[in-house]
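Hi all, posting the design record for the shared folder.

TITLE: backbone redesign
STEP: 1 of 1
STRUCTURE INPUT:
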């Protein structure tokens, strides 16, 4: 089946930057919308950013002006450039994708990558 593998997480100081990547692999006919979510300890999983197959983007209010989502369709990969990081950005970041294959539509999740921002 389809696998989504995130990379790029780690420990960074407040004000620093990280770039997350999520690569999709498997039997895929097409990838539609791709998203980044995050989940902090004791909180629900929140949508951070989304990008459509045509490149249209949307961001949560708490990351506007700091984060940028992009994608490389040839590589089946979505990125999240995170700048001006704050301690409250600390969370597990998850990749999510809508995938069309074998005439059906599916939604997949990656395993998550930890982002820790220290003060």
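Okay, here is what came back for every position:
SEQUENCE:
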């Amino acid at each position: 089946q389809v696998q989504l593998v995130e990379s790029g997480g780690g420990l960074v100081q407040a004000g620093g930057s990280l770039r997350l990547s999520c690569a999709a692999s498997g039997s895929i006919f097409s990838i539609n919308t791709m998203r980044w979510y995050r989940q902090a300890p004791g909180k629900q999983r929140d949508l951070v950013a989304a990008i459509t197959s045509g490149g249209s983007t949307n961001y949560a209010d708490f990351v506007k002006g700091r984060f940028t989502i992009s994608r490389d369709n040839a590589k089946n990969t979505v990125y999240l450039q995170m700048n001006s990081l704050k301690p409250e950005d600390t969370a597990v970041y998850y990749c999510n994708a809508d995938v069309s294959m074998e005439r059906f539509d599916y939604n997949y999740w990656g395993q998550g990558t930890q982002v820790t921002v220290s003060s």
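COMMENT: The longest strand covers residues 91-101.
Let me know if anyone wants the other runs.
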